[in-house]
Every structure is written in structure tokens, then in C-alpha cells.
């Protein structure tokens, strides 16, 4: 059993039967699970408990998942995976805007949930020196799905990691919206979704210089930062 499988997971879910099924499954897989049935309780305890990942239902009574994530982000930097019965694109966009790292629509096949959970935990795990790709300023640890700037890890969501990885490897090539959507979502841009705009905006906020990502009007984005 790996260190990742001993991780502490916070499950925020008001459906008791679903919460029990999910907790039992993750416990069998080696995780320690703390269940919160209400957003207010989760908001109070998660910053202190510092779980390795939060599984967060959107449709919560009182403080819903979107607002809970928004308020948590000032006090909790770990990965957040949204779980929701609503499969609408707007909910996914809102989830990304408030700091979510992944978005899964119910019903969720347990092994699919496990795969996403492990991916997020690998991204935030302590880095190793194996299977890494180095640049002069940035270092990309592909095994951990983490990018370092001057040896300091950047706090990136999984989509932000994939976007920055794409830009760093662009070799002065303009990256269009289809390139970005294929890299972060595995689909082409539909011409309507604002997912790319949100990702670019969020990533710029996490870089020392927002101008490292240059907008090429009508074409896409060009990386002008250090390699």
C-alpha cells in the first residue's frame, strides 16, 4: 500500500446512504475518511483538519458546495473534487472559478472516483527526483503532476497544471483554444465555453508576471516567460 493510499479524505455529502457507500469504499482502499453532512460544519473543521483532498457535493443544504469552496480557498490549499448530480456546463465553470480541481457528475463509478482521487493526490504529494523534466527556471515533475518555479511548488489545479505544461512546451508556438481544451479536457473547444478564459486568468494570477502569457487576438496564447 502506498503513502497516497493512507491519505485523509474529507467527504462533504448530505445524502447519508451515498456518504456511507463512498466512505466504506474509500476505507477499503486504504484511505481515512471524515464525513461532513453540512457545508457549515465542513467550513468550520476542514481548515484545521487539513485533509489531503476534499470530495465536495454541490447540492448541500444551507451553504452549498460552490460557496463552501469559495470560502474554503482562503484557508485550505489542497485539492477539491466536486461531486454533483447536476451535469450542466455552468456548474463546471463555476466550480473551476471558485477553485475546484476536478468535477465529476453522479452517478460516479467507484473506480473512476478512485482514479481522479489518486491523480489529485499524486499532484500534491511530496516530489521525488525521478521521472522529471527540467528547465532553467521551471521544473516539471510529471509523475507527481507538479510544476516548480525556482524549486518552489506552484499551487495549481489539475487543469492549470496541464495548461502550464502545454505552454512551457510550446516552443514559441501560439496555442489556440482547441489545443488547450484537448490538453485539459480531452475535447475541442465548442466556441462558447469560457473554460479557457477562466483557466488563463487563474493561471496568470499564480505566476510572478501575468504578462508571461500573451494573448494573440483571434489566434490564442503565446508563452513569453522563462523556460
UniProtKB/TrEMBL annotation:
Positions in coiled-coil regions: none
> Would you indicate the residue range of the signal peptide?
none
One Pfam family named in its UniProt record: Trans_reg_C
The answer to keyword DNA-binding applying to this record is yes
Q: Which SUPFAM superfamilies match?
A: C-terminal effector domain of the bipartite response regulators, CheY-like
Extract the PROSITE patterns matched here.
OMPR_PHOB (PS51755), RESPONSE_REGULATORY (PS50110)
Work out whether the entry's keyword set contains Transcription regulation: yes
Residues of the DNA-binding region: 127-225
User: By its UniProt entry, which InterPro entries does this protein fall under?
Assistant: CheY-like_superfamily, OmpR/PhoB-type_DNA-bd, Sig_transdc_resp-reg_C-effctor, Sig_transdc_resp-reg_receiver, WalR-like, WH-like_DNA-bd_sf
One GO cellular component this record assigns the protein to is: cytosol
Question: PANTHER family, from UniProt?
Answer: REGULATOR OF RPOS (PTHR48111), TWO-COMPONENT RESPONSE REGULATOR ORR33 (PTHR48111:SF1)
Source organism: Reinekea blandensis MED297
Tell me the residues on which 4-aspartylphosphate occurs: 57
**Which residue ranges does the record assign to the OmpR/PhoB-type domain?**
127-225
The top of its lineage is: Bacteria, Pseudomonadati, Pseudomonadota, Gammaproteobacteria, Oceanospirillales
Domain (Response regulatory): give its ranges.
8-121
The highest taxon in the source lineage is Bacteria
**Keywords associated with the record:** DNA-binding, Phosphoprotein, Transcription, Transcription regulation, Two-component regulatory system
Output the Gene Ontology terms for molecular function: phosphorelay response regulator activity; transcription cis-regulatory region binding
Instruction: Return one Gene Ontology term, BP aspect.
Output: regulation of DNA-templated transcription
**Name under which the protein is recorded:** Probable two-component response regulator
Amino acid at each position: 500500500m502506498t503513502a497516497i493510499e493512507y491519505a485523509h479524505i474529507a467527504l462533504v455529502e448530505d445524502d447519508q446512504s451515498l456518504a456511507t457507500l463512498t466512505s466504506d469504499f474509500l476505507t477499503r482502499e486504504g484511505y481515512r475518511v471524515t464525513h461532513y453532512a453540512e457545508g457549515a460544519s465542513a467550513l468550520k473543521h476542514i481548515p484545521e483538519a487539513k485533509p489531503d483532498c476534499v470530495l465536495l457535493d454541490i447540492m448541500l443544504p444551507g451553504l452549498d458546495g460552490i460557496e463552501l469552496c469559495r470560502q474554503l480557498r482562503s484557508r485550505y490549499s489542497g485539492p477539491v473534487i466536486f461531486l454533483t448530480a447536476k451535469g450542466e456546463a455552468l456548474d463546471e465553470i463555476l466550480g473551476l472559478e471558485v477553485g475546484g480541481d476536478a468535477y465529476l457528475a453522479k452517478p460516479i463509478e467507484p473506480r473512476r472516483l478512485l482514479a481522479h482521487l489518486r491523480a489529485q493526490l499524486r499532484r500534491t504529494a511530496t516530489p521525488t527526483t525521478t521521472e522529471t523534466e527540467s528547465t532553467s527556471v521551471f521544473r516539471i515533475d510529471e509523475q507527481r503532476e507538479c510544476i516548480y518555479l525556482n524549486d518552489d511548488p506552484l499551487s495549481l489545479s489539475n487543469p492549470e497544471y496541464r495548461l502550464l505544461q502545454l505552454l512551457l512546451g510550446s516552443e514559441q508556438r501560439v496555442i489556440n483554444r482547441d489545443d488547450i481544451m484537448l490538453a485539459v479536457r480531452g475535447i475541442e473547444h465548442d466556441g462558447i465555453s469560457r473554460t479557457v478564459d477562466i483557466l488563463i486568468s487563474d493561471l496568470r494570477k499564480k505566476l510572478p508576471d501575468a504578462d508571461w502569457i500573451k494573448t494573440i487576438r483571434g489566434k490564442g496564447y503565446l508563452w513569453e516567460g522563462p523556460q
